[in-house]
Design a protein that fits this description.
Belongs to the sulfatase family. The chain is of the alpha/beta class. The chain contains 13 helices and 16 strands. The chain has one domain (about 40-480): 3-Layer(aba) Sandwich (Alkaline Phosphatase, subunit A). It has helices at about 10-15, 65-70, 85-95, 100, 120-125, 180-190, 240-245, 275-305, 335-340, 345-350, 365-375, 390, 465-480; strands at about 40-45, 75-80, 130-135, 150-155, 160-165, 170-180, 200-205, 310-315, 320, 330, 340-345, 355-360, 400-405, 420-425, 425-430, 440-445. Helix 6 runs parallel beside helix 8.
Amino acid sequence: MFWKFCVLPAMLVGCFAVGLPGGSNAQETQGAKVEKRPNILLMLCDDIRFNALGCMGHPHLKTPNIDRLASEGVLFENVFCTTSLCSPSRASILSGLYAHTHGVTNNFTEFPDSMGTFPIQLQKVGYETAYIGKYHMGENNDEPRPGFDHFVTHKGQGQYFDTEFNVDGQGGKVVPGYYTTVVTDMAEEWIQDRSGDKPWMMMIGQKAPHSFYFPEPKYEHAFDDVEIDYPHSAFDLSDKPEWIRQRLNTWHGIYGPLFDWRKDFPDTSAAAVLDFQAMVRAYMGTILSVDDSMGRLVQLLAERGELENTIVIFMGDNGLLEGEHGMVDKRTMHEPSIRIPLVMRYPGMSGGSAKRVKQQVLTVDIAPTLCELAGAEPLPKIHGRSLVQLVADKDPAWRTSWFYHYNYEKQFPYTPNVRGVRTDRWKLIRYPHGDGQADRHMGELYDLANDPDELHNLFGAPEQQERIAELSNELLELMAATGISEDTMPLDEGIKGELPDASIR
């Protein structure tokens, strides 16, 4: 159901006349007096695939509330995380920095209290700020963090049902109910308590659709009639690095336990695809509740008369492999792992109509964008760029390449060290050993224009060796531009078969 909301369409048309920052409803970003700063509502999903929305062409998922944001705002079609892992990516969203600079390179490291973030910058210009939901930087820390006046989170991953939340550091207390509904209730309550005298910024950290996947009861059987098979790419690994084949039977492979959806593993039988099907159906079911959540919040903003002066953002922290090349989870540099959805609705940014942006956008671009739109001082020496001029078609020098990096984890020994570069057409992936020697695994090279599903690895093709050399140099140049003079990383100890500790899954 859509927000009842087809909120006064005639009025919406008129409201789109609001201009970009510096216009009648925004502000100059370099010290000028502000008339009225926009509110900000940012909903962050965990492990949502780039195409897990109706507006991104999913064949089965219907997300009318998020789709409406896209139809009235900006849909960014090619958005990527710079490290496909929850904590590093969330830190990049907050700070505008790559993981090697902000220091959160795994899921067990605290975000430094001294590190600048866009919420801190917003507080400096009078914003009331809140974070509600999954924060996930510091596995056992649910205490308030800098930059937020109101802070509600939990330790670890949280549960789909009856999570123990810590509200403003007052101690953990179980809140009965389905996670997505609970955090939406909390968000509505906080917004309703705002007087309107100050601008506000709220981030909502949804648990969904992170494993283990448990849909809300009303959506448990929403996809029972949808047939799900392993992707064809799972059965053609002949030109892929050996580590991908070694991963097949592990925690992150299609023949492994599938986040507990398969009890007996490894299972390579034809019948085992039913476990995979059940997992994917449940994953999709959790997203339906997220769409409901967005609908409720947008309806509330409309009822309060705040919708047209609120930047509404829906995005993911990282992507997810759903059987592609025989893999589940994320961490790798393959497209489903690194691509994320991003929708932004704000009349002051959209220029008066819905837009689709095809250029490559990164998680590190969120912080500078929100600082600019809010009229806050920019964060110094960051790696991201504001999207404001890009959306206005006034940034012809937008990036055409960027680099990706991920460090091997002993706790999840199923993915090597990864360093790679993605241009508008080409992707080169390398797997450093970690001790300065030659790469531990064969690399990967894909022509994304002709092979968007990365089915044909061109790394060994004689005619591509000059291109590989050029891209390797570009990778080093991009890394150096972000301050990497010596690339330190853990030693790649190889793909292993043991399951991760139950407490960190």
